[in-house]
Design brief:
The complex is a heterodimer. Chain A has eight helices and nine strands. Helix content of chain A is about 35%, strand content about 25%. In chain A, helix 6 links the parallel strand 6 and strand 7 (about 200-205). Chain A has helices at about 25-35, 70-75, 110-120, 125-140, 155-165, 185-195, 210-215, 235-245; strands spanning about 5-20, 40-55, 60, 85-90, 95, 170-175, 200-205, 220-225, 225-230. Chain A is an alpha/beta fold. Helices cover about 70% and strands about 0% of the residues of chain B. Chain B has helices at about 5-15, 20-25, 30-40, 60-80, 80-95, 105-120, 135-165, 165-170, 180-205, 215-240, 245-255, 270-275, 280-295, 300-330; strands at about 45-50, 55. The chains are: A alpha/beta, B mainly alpha. Chains A and B meet through helix 1, strand 4, helix 3, helix 4 and helix 6 of A and helix 2, helix 3, strand 1, strand 2 and helix 5 of B.
Chain lengths: ~260, ~325
């Protein structure tokens, strides 16, 4: 990675395990007697992930379903804690994770913008002053006053991206959800991301190697909770594509030990 | 050359490249924004985790205790805009889809107040040896108890499922889950406040005057609020891990009503039982609100100190319990 610019994200040997129980009784036993015996199976979603991203860098993350991408993003956002390993994240993170899933279906678009902005750490006046700009960007017109449950998937996604685009984030985390939008909106988003990259840090998660090559200067390929390859997006994407074409879609990785 | 009639229109609707970018980043280009945010102390503290545990600055014992005691207030102040945003939404949502809307929030306590006045107005005597013997006093006496108890029971029913209600936020965003207890208690406060205002209005209209002690009610609310927030932290953290909490509360809360002097005064009990009743913190709250509103006297020193003490202990214990378990919450919910 390039040497200029301060380190924004530093992850060292991150690992995350989830406790899987056969039934609720096992859970109760673990809670009461956990210090004597283990009643759960550990599922290591992440095993060993280390990387570093500097300000202004963009990192693409490639990987198949269940390889641990989402867990990694959740940890980077501070939603869950890693079980082991060190993490340093400096700056405001705007996650476009599972776009629109955080919306409150009963609330109107405007209320959701206010709540969403507040969750991301914006002051109320700031959000109010940006409200019209957000509505413009999303381009959903009068639907801003309607409950989200009346929105189409595409409209939700537009609104979610519009919010994230307005929070002055230092780190933008873009999930594959972008593919929901139509051509014109996708282009608008990518244009915006291009402008954002000038100063911000981008983490781009995708199944599509072409987009990673287009948007990122670095890439990592996560396989089974470990980094399988890191380097230039072109090289990583090539070996990723080659591997997915050859390897069978075996589901061993979903099993707990 | 013949052009299709819509050609000109179509061209106008092609989004201009770069137009939205300048709109979105207007005046706050990321480069300068970073510097100005840093200058304002506006930057979120870096997320720093070493070996799976967040790094906390080491301080001495006393400083550590003080930091812990101040933490809930600091955090609530930091997230004040979020609290307001969600609270507004929750309040608006409560009567959404009903034509009468907020009238219901006033109707329910008003009707029960009228019922108590009619039912108990003439017949019953106040258990307290108070000088006032107005017919509405017994109704107000019971109503005061009910307001306090309902305030508590609303939280007791809701708290265990509170985090499940907001699971989409907790799992997907950096949502400060500990603020939910404060938000939901504030919401309940609105309804309790409506009922209390009605009670005061009723006393003013039927009894002719208000006691000056009614001015102390905000203080009563403040202490009650701290107690309820504490208990909500405790119950919601427990409820996140097991649904049994909510069944437990559904079973206990109605029974608790009989262990609380809602329909009677604990002074009518035997001296021993009278003391035992104070183990239930609600007894103290009910006695104080009755003293302030109905009897117009200052509550006893012992009762006040005991109630405040229990509330503060509940508040910080609840906070400690919640924070201790909050790491696991996003994983299990």
């Amino acid at each position: 990675m390039s040497s200029e610019g301060e380190v924004i994200i530093r992850a060292k040997h991150l690992a995350k395990s989830y406790q899987l129980y056969d039934n609720r009784h096992q859970w109760l036993k673990q809670t009461l007697l956990g210090s004597f015996k283990t009643y759960y199976k550990a599922f290591w979603a992440l095993k060993d992930i280390s990387f570093e991203v500097r300000r202004g860098e963009s990192l693409g993350i490639l990987g198949r379903n269940g390889c641990g991408k989402s867990t990694l993003l959740q940890i980077l956002c501070g939603i869950t804690r890693p079980t082991k390993g060190d993490l340093w994240v400096n700056g405001r993170v705007a996650p476009i994770l599972a776009l629109g899933a955080t919306f409150d279906l009963e609330a109107t678009g405007e209320e959701n913008v206010l709540i969403g902005g507040a969750v991301l750490g914006l002051k109320r006046e700031e959000i109010l002053s940006k409200l019209s700009s957000i509505a413009d960007f999303a381009g959903i017109g009068d639907f801003m006053d309607q409950p989200i449950k009346l929105y189409s998937t595409g409209m939700r996604m537009r609104l979610a991206f519009a919010i994230c685009a307005h929070v002055d984030a230092d780190i933008l985390i873009v999930d594959e959800a972008l593919s929901v939008g139509d051509e014109a909106f996708q282009r608008k988003c990518f244009d915006w991301i291009d402008a954002f990259r000038a100063n911000g840090t981008l983490l781009f998660v995708s199944h599509s190697p072409t987009e990673v090559i287009r948007l990122c200067r670095q890439a990592i390929w996560i396989d089974n909770g470990r980094i399988r390859e890191a380097g230039r997006p072109v090289d990583v994407a090539r070996s990723y594509e080659r591997a997915t074409a050859v390897e069978a879609d075996n589901m061993d990785r979903f099993s707990a030990t | 050359m013949l052009r299709p009639p819509f050609a000109r229109l179509y061209r106008e609707y092609i989004p201009r490249r770069g137009y939205y970018i300048s709109g979105a980043m207007d005046g706050q280009g990321t480069g300068s924004a970073v510097e100005s945010k840093k200058a304002e102390g506006y930057f979120p503290p870096p997320l720093n985790i070493v070996d799976g545990k967040p790094v906390v600055e080491k301080v001495g014992l006393l400083a550590g205790v003080l930091r812990f005691l101040g933490e809930p207030f600091r955090s609530a102040w930091h997230h004040r805009d979020l609290i307001v945003a969600i609270l507004r939404r929750e309040l608006r949502e409560r009567f959404k889809g009903s034509a009468a809307g907020w009238v219901w929030a006033v109707m329910a306590p008003l009707l029960s107040l009228i019922t108590y006045t009619v039912a108990f107005g003439g017949s019953a005597k106040l258990p307290n040896n108070s000088a006032s013997a107005s017919p509405v006093d017994y109704a107000l006496f019971i109503f005061g108890g009910l307001v306090a108890f309902n305030f508590f029971s609303e939280m007791a029913y809701r708290a265990p499922s509170l985090l499940h209600e907001y699971s989409h936020y907790i799992k997907q965003t950096m949502f400060p889950a500990e603020m939910l207890a404060i938000i939901s208690t504030l919401r309940a406060t609105t309804y309790a406040a409506i009922a209390l205002v009605l009670m005061l209005a009723c006393q003013l209209v039927l009894g002719g005057a208000l006691h000056w002690t009614a001015l102390l009610i905000p203080l009563w609310f403040l202490v009650f609020l701290m107690f309820l927030v504490g208990i909500t932290w405790f119950l919601s953290a427990l409820g996140a891990f097991t649904r049994d909490t909510s069944y437990l509360m559904m079973t206990i809360a109605p029974l608790l009503m009989f262990a609380t002097p809602v329909f009677f005064s604990q002074e009518s009990l035997s001296p021993t039982m009278n003391k035992v009743m104070y183990l239930n913190i609600l007894t103290g709250f009910i006695e104080i609100v009755r003293d302030l509103v109905v009897f117009g006297q200052l509550p006893g020193l012992f009762v006040t100190l005991w109630t405040v003490f229990l509330s503060l202990v509940t508040f910080w214990f609840g906070y400690w319990f919640f924070c201790n378990r909050r790491d696991g919450i996003a994983d299990v919910i």
